[in-house]
Amino acid sequence: MQLISSNNLKVVVDLNNGGRISSLKFHGHEFVIPNNGKVLHWGWYPMVPWAGRINKGEFLGPSSKIELPTDLMPPHAIHGFGHSVVWQDEGEGISSCEFEGDFAGAGAVQEIKVSEDTLHYKLQYVPNSCELPAWLGLHTWFPWTIESSQRATINFSANNMLELSADGIPSGELVPASEGPWDDTFTNLNSVPKITWPGIASLEIKSNVDWWTIYTKDKAVFCVEPLNAPPDAIRIGRLIGNTHNLEVTFSFSQDFIK
Hints:
Helix content is about 0%, strand content about 45%. The chain is mainly beta. It has no helices and 24 strands.
């Protein structure tokens, strides 16, 4: 475990369970879904060496197609390997992992720092001798209500979202952003995503990315996920720019009901 804290923020990183943030408390209030035994459905975890679904696990490398594991969400591969490997403590909020199989030789490094009211998150893919393409994301799980708070509101607006098939695989085409509930990936945002739990806190999430996946279809939990390329990015031709580095800033403030 890593313990990272300021006066107002207390963060726990579970290195043995995918290097994920297993607890984040702001002024004593918990903002992370705890371990529920479902590897994809708790904590805030790094999505590396890819983020989102890969259609039928078919990953296009520079010279050949490889078959990724599809056991977590058949028939598709999903969210990389980082969430299921052991990460090594490198000190001062830094941890690292190495991959096996087709991504052997590659690894990742994440760095988590906190100031009084802000969490700074960095994730880097380190290819070393591995020639396969990669892109990154951070998968959050938030509760809709915290203690006795009213249901959270999400201030989120984007111009476009990816068109999806019935099983959540993008076609590559952009369509106008719709009203929720969502399990969708958006681009061309109009503002920084902001979440408010009335009477508890507000949270702004800023990142150096062009893509965001928002999930609001569950009654108890929701996700706001920054990605530096969309799901199935290679197949749909949207693996563009620097996709080996991700930075996210979570800025908290207390919310007082007037």
